[in-house]
Amino acid sequence: MQTALPVQRKAPRADALRNRERIVAAAREMFTEFGPDVPLDEIARRAGVGNATVYRNFPDRDALVREVVCSVMDRTTEAAERALAETGDAFEALERFVHTAADERISALCPMVQSTFDRDHPDLVAARVRSEELVVALMDRAKAAGQLRPDVDSGDLLIAVAQLSRPPAGTACFQVDRFIHRHLQLFLDGLRAPARSVLPGAAATLEDLRQA
C-alpha cells in the first residue's frame, strides 16, 4: 500500500507577486485621491494589468481595500522597527513611525475601515494589533529613558498623526504635502521631556479610541 505524498504547493511566481504589489500600490494612490469607490477598472489601468488580474488577486472591493490598509499599517510598523534596530532609540523610532504614517497617507485610508467592511477581519486585526503594540512599547521605552513626557499616551499620538497628516476640508492632499512633515515634527518636539506645559484633560488611550 502506497502512502499518499503531501501536495507540494508552488510559491507564487515573481511576476505574480509584482502584479499584486502594483495593484496594491495603484489602489492606495487612487483610494487616497478619489475614495474607496474608485472603479476597479481604473485601478487596473493605473497598475498596468488586466481586469482579470485584479479579480484573480482580490475577489471583491473589500478585499482590495483591506489589503491596502493592512499593507500601509505593516510598512509603517516596519519602518519604526528598523529605526529601533538601527539606533536603539525609542523616540527616534517613534518619529520614524509618525513620518512614515504620513507618507503612507494612513489618515486618508483608515476611515475606510469604518465605512466599507468588517473592522474585525483577522488580517486587519492582526495588522492593527502589531502596530498598536509597537507604539505602546516604544512610548513606554521612551518614557523610561526620560525622552518622552509622562502625561501622554498612545491614543494622543495616533489622534495627532491622523489630524496633522489629513488636509483641511476643500484642500487637495498633494497641495499640502510640503507642510505635513514640518507640522508633525513640531508635534513630536512637543512630546519630548521635560514637558514645557501642563496638558488639559486626561491622556487618550487606545481604549478611548476604540470607544470613540
UniProtKB/TrEMBL annotation:
<keyword id="KW-0238">DNA-binding</keyword>
<dbReference type="InterPro" id="IPR001647">
    <property type="entry name" value="HTH_TetR"/>
</dbReference>
<dbReference type="Pfam" id="PF21597">
    <property type="entry name" value="TetR_C_43"/>
</dbReference>
<dbReference type="GO" id="GO:0003700">
    <property type="term" value="F:DNA-binding transcription factor activity"/>
</dbReference>
<dbReference type="InterPro" id="IPR050109">
    <property type="entry name" value="HTH-type_TetR-like_transc_reg"/>
</dbReference>
<dbReference type="GO" id="GO:0000976">
    <property type="term" value="F:transcription cis-regulatory region binding"/>
</dbReference>
<dbReference type="InterPro" id="IPR036271">
    <property type="entry name" value="Tet_transcr_reg_TetR-rel_C_sf"/>
</dbReference>
<dbReference type="InterPro" id="IPR049445">
    <property type="entry name" value="TetR_SbtR-like_C"/>
</dbReference>
<protein>
    <submittedName>
        <fullName>TetR family transcriptional regulator</fullName>
    </submittedName>
</protein>
<keyword id="KW-0804">Transcription</keyword>
<keyword id="KW-0805">Transcription regulation</keyword>
<dbReference type="Pfam" id="PF00440">
    <property type="entry name" value="TetR_N"/>
</dbReference>
<dbReference type="InterPro" id="IPR009057">
    <property type="entry name" value="Homeodomain-like_sf"/>
</dbReference>
